[in-house]
Amino acid sequence: MVAVIDHGAGNLVSISQGLERAGARVAVATAPADLSGAAAVVLPGVGAPGAAMSRLTDEGLVEPLRSWKGPLLGICIGLQLFFDVSEEDGQACLGLDRGRVRKLEDAPLLPHIGWNDLTFPGNGRGRDPLFDGIPPGATFYFVHSYAPVPEDPAITIAYAEYPHPFTAAVRSGGRIGVQFHPERSGDQGLRVLANFVSEVEEWSRAAVGSGGAG
Question: Of 19, 79, 150, 200, which has the fewest beta carbons less than 10 angstroms from its beta carbon?
Fold first, then answer.
C-alpha cells in the first residue's frame, strides 16, 4: 500500500488516481497510524511550505516522516519540504536533505507554469531509474516559483530551465522528489509514477526476503 499524505494542500485525487493507474493500492494518510502497513509514502503538495508544515505538525506527521525508512516520493511542495528551509516564508522544513529552497532567479514571469523537458547530469551514473523509458525531449508540467538548491549537487537527478537550470528531481537512497507534477504530465508522468511503483514493489520484496519492515 502507498500512503498519500493529506496536509491540506495536495492534489490528492489526481495523484491517487495516477498511482492507481500505475498499479499501486493507495490510502490517504492524515495521522501516524495511517502509515502502519504502508510500503511507501507520497508527499504531494501545492501552495506554501509554511501551511504544509503547520498541517503536518498538527497531524503529528513531522517526526514519522523524518524517521521513515521506506520509499518516499515528494511532489512539488512535497519535494521542497525535504530540505532545511524555504526562503518563500522562512519556513523550517523537514531537513531530510541539506539545502535551501529559493526563488527562481531572473524568471520572466512567476509562477512558472508550463511544460519543460529535462536534462540529466553527466555524473557517470547514467539516467536514474525513475526516468526509465522516458524518451528524449519528453516534457513535464511545472507550477512553481521556488526550487530546491541542494548542498550536495550529486543528489540532483534531473534539471529543467526557467530561464536558468534548476533542480527538477532529486534522489537520496529511496527518497525521491520531483518539482514537476507527474499526475498532470500525461503519459510520461504516468511512466514516472509506474517506475516509482515498480521500485516500491522491489523494495517490498527485498524487505520481506530479509525479514525487514517499512
Answer: 150
Task: For residues 179-201, give the mean pLDDT.
Answer: 97
d(CA 206, CA 152) in angstroms, rounded, equals: 28
Lookup: cell for 160:
529543467
Spatial separation of the C-alpha atoms in residues 146 and 88, rounded to whole Å: 7
Contact yes or no for 113/142 (Cβ under 8 A):
yes
Look at the chain and report how many structural domains it folds into: 1
Q: Considering only residues 168 and 8, tell me which one the structure prediction assigns the higher pLDDT.
A: 168
Label residue 207 by pLDDT band (50, 70, 90).
confident
Catalytic (active-site) positions? 76, 181, 183
CA 35/CA 148 separation, integer angstroms: 26
> The domain containing residue 31 runs over which residues?
2-210
**Pairing status of strand 175-178 against strand 165-172:** antiparallel
For the entire predicted model, the pTM comes to 0.95
* Nine cell digits for residue 44: 504531494
Q: Which three cell numbers stand for residue 191?
A: 511512466
CATH number (domain holding residue 32): 3.40.50.880
